[in-house]
Amino acid sequence: MPALPGQKIIAITGTIGSGKSTVAKILASRYPVIDCDRVNAELLLPGSPAYDALRALPFIKVDDQGQIDKPAMAKAIFGDASKKAAVEGILHPRIFERVQAWILQQQAPVVFVEMPVLFEIGAECRFKTVWCVTCDENVALQRLMEQRHFSREDAKARIANQWDARKKKAGSSV
Questions:
Q1: What would the pLDDT profile of 63-75 be if each residue is shown by its tens digit?
Q2: Reading across the β-sheet that carries 110-114, which strands appear in turn?
């Protein structure tokens, strides 16, 4: 990712439920941090060009308030690689645009980009430094069920959709 002269950009990645957000919150008390999951959530809101593009996909459903039905979308894309690619083709370029614009607005010498699926989408080449947060899979399952209210099956499906911890750690700087 292009940065201001002398600026260091560090990616934070890791397995789902591992504690990436906790690490990011701690860092945010001292450094600028952008959360790509939050950017993604903003892109799903009505009025966003990404929202309009997603609505054009026949498998994307909306609720009574016009919000994209995220559980239904997740179920559709985690079970079908072509649907997943269609959604990612809409969202990922827009996420990178927003992250890049945000980086260029920061004056801090070090900034952090929390990107859970960094390796899965081949974005590691955009960063010189990658920090990886991992935990035991049973701990992650418990966190996903307790904190995000996923069923055990949904939690396992989300974990299975990402690279495993060893593979992420092997590609990371720290």
A1: 999 999 999 998 8
A2: 33-35, 110-114, 8-14, 129-133
CA distance 4 to 45: 30
Helices (H), 12-164: 20-28, 36-43, 49-55, 70-78, 81-105, 137-147, 152-160
Residue 31 near residue 145 (C-beta atoms within 8 A): no
Would you say residue 157 has pLDDT above 90? no
Are 9 and 23 in contact by the 8 Å Cβ rule? The answer is no
pLDDT in tens, 43-92: 999 999 999 999 999 999 999 999 999 999 988 998 899 999 999 999 99
Q: Class for domain 8-170, per CATH?
A: alpha beta
The pTM of the full predicted model, rounded to 2 decimals, is 0.88
Distance between CA atoms of 128 and 70, rounded to whole angstroms? 33
Every domain of the chain and the residues it spans: 8-170
Instruction: Tell me the torsion sign for CA atoms 60, 64, 69, 72.
Output: negative
